[in-house]
Amino acid sequence: MNSEPEDKTSISNFINTNNVLIVKENISKNNLIEKLVEILCKQDTSLDKNNILQLVLKREEGISTTLDTGLSIPHARFEGIDNFKCAFAILPNAALKDEGNDIDIKAMFLFVSPARSDFFKKHLNLLSNLSQTFQSQFISDIISLNSEQEIFEKIASKSS
Amino acid sequence: MSNSEENLNTTFLNKNSPLRVKKVVVLTTAMLTFIPFWKAAAVVLCDFGSSAFYVGGIAMRAFGQAFPWYVIAVMLFAGAMLAVYTESCSMFVRGGVYKVVKEGLGGTVAKVATGAIMFDFVLTGPISGVSAGHYLSGLINSLFHHFGVTMYIPENTFAVCFAILVTMFFWYQNVKGIEDSSDKSAKIIIFALFICVILFVWSIVTIAKRGAVLPTFALDFSDHAYGWVKPTLLQKIGMLGVVMAIGHSVLALSGLETMAQVFREIEYPKIKNLKKAAIIVFIFALVFTGGLTFLSSLIIPPEIIGQYSENLLSGLSMQLWGPQGLKLILQALVVFAGVIMLSGAVNTALIGSNGVLNRVAEDGVLTDWFRNIHPKYGTTHNIINVVAITQILIIVLSGGKVYLLGEAYAFGVLWSFVLETAAIVMLRFKNREKKREFMVPFNIKIKNYYFPVGITIILLILVALAGVNLFTKKTATITGISFTVFLFIVFWISEKLNAKKANAMFEEGHREKINTKNVNSLEEVLGKLNKPNTTLVAVKNPSNLYHFEEVLKTLDENTTDVVIFYAKPVTESRFGRNVSFAPTEENELFTKVILSAEKFGHRVMPILVQSNDAFYAISQVAKASGANQIVMGVSGSHGANNQLERLVMAWGALKKEELEKKINVRILWEGREVSHTLE
Questions:
Q1: Which CATH number characterizes residue A64's domain?
Q2: In this predicted structure, what is the pLDDT of residue B12?
Q3: Which of B48, B340, B447, B673 could disulfide-link to B255, CB 3.0 to 4.6 Å?
């Protein structure tokens, strides 16, 4: 793993085969968020799923977290954790539209981060990193992959 | 996709991205370029200084050979009035007699003051145009005489025709909206200064050759100059004669209102630069108007000086010692200087009266007819038409007699000064907690009050002059009062007719006339930025420009360009669907931006883009401009953190390579700041 400056946030640090999901069926955005929250909470059983889900959905009511590339980044800041907790999904069939937008959501990266003020810079850096990494072409490449392992390796190679 | 859309998008975003910036508009308005103090002084002097060409002759006809002393006295008093105007500008960036009197003495008195200043403006054009016509006809007749041509141009008729032509020329320019640049004013004044130096030097040589006798102090009033005052009263009250003489000379103060008009255009630091401008105006006027008038009385023999009452400075040039041919050339130069300065004053009178009536109309006092915009040129042409027609009528009625116009002239000047000065005295008490960068000197501080001794003395002098003039200048009193009453009735009726609309306009507030220009790409407009640093200020809410003013307070204009940027939603905002803001009226927003920029006198570049996502637009503009700082106001509905989140997301999506320099993002609101660095 490459060493990185203190505030840099490499996406591959937070993704593994256990928190990647390939969604092929039709699904609503809120349901997808709920699924990802479940995955996230499985990784850390101390997390309260309903609490996190409410925080993420509340954040979704504000300024949009979906980019024109098709990446959606629902997230929330949560007390009681000391690092990012993430889950990632791809939608190869691209049947999910962000409400009120013309944009098809092709990938969703959900995360929670510590609510501490000293962590906010890392929080922002992750958001920036995600939008810089998941450009249109990259998302097209990823959604053509067939397994969680391939997705993880693709992201890892991009992040390094 | 058109080429222009290609230009907008290929550098940044996917061609099919719905978030792309759709259109770029640059707002161009002269209000956002600011001028240095010496250009501001030149603008004022083009009006104020032009009275040098006629005040001496008018004063001489009124009270005889003592005229130069009183013209100098009036020029010295101009220093006091400049101080009064400087204080009024320190209170109101967009001041002027209507605003100041309204704040100090109320709307009714403000209408009276407006009537008075309008009387000044509608007379400034004719007296300047007719005077210029006399100078020109005098030159032509001199040339005819020199070359033995037996023709003679009737000067009054010529003056009337010339004045009408000049008025019509500037009427047309003002309807088309071509504003006189301060550069032109500066060139005119520099030329006038050049002529002034020649006249001074040549006059000194003449005095050295021939000697000179100081003009008498004795007053010799013409019958007309007494007005309704009995001459025997002067014997009982000696000072009355002095006050009367000053009253007949005070028309030389016309043009100082231009100070208030030009203040909004002065660059940072505004009051400091205004003071410098005021000092230049004072010295120039004292030397040019006072000095040249005095030299005229020394050089032109008393027995023939009366022949030059309509063109005194021409008389000065013709009576100097030296060859006739050279003197003719000098006369031509003097006439040229006079014609361009006086013509400039005709234009200033039209611009000034248009400005004053627009200010009144903004308050809903005038009916919509006055504010109708020309379908092609976008100017308030009805106001300009009415003023120009009035001026032409006055020119015709005057028959080309400068003295007659001068007789009527002082009413407007004096009474507008009286009311403005009185208003400022009142505001010392009404707004005593309001800090002023400048106060007219001689104030006695008692507890929290600054008792205005100096300005009160000025007010008393003005009241005395205005009061005496009421009785000694019949033409001025009758025509001035009639005009002021007439205009007051027009205002009163218009205001009644406009009552409902006036309330709505008051709630809406003033909207600036803003010119826009579509450009093809961000680079086209942002490529003009050339300072080491660029600050991008994102604005949206006209009521939330705190962050913009904070930038202006600490701006170093020598090193930093400021781009004011508004991302107008193309359709209902797709992002932040629960955002409840209504699409902002950009005119209202940029009016506030202009007012803030004027307050500080800093040059800014305002642009408007159409976009579906403000944060993408901010990122695009920041990248295109090479900004090293982005400043935003806080969103009341989402908060600074969410704004930063969206911005970094948009920035990350646009960023293709590492930045050469970091961009500091600041979100400011009262007393608080959240910041982040984009890398």
A1: 3.40.930.10
A2: 36
A3: B48
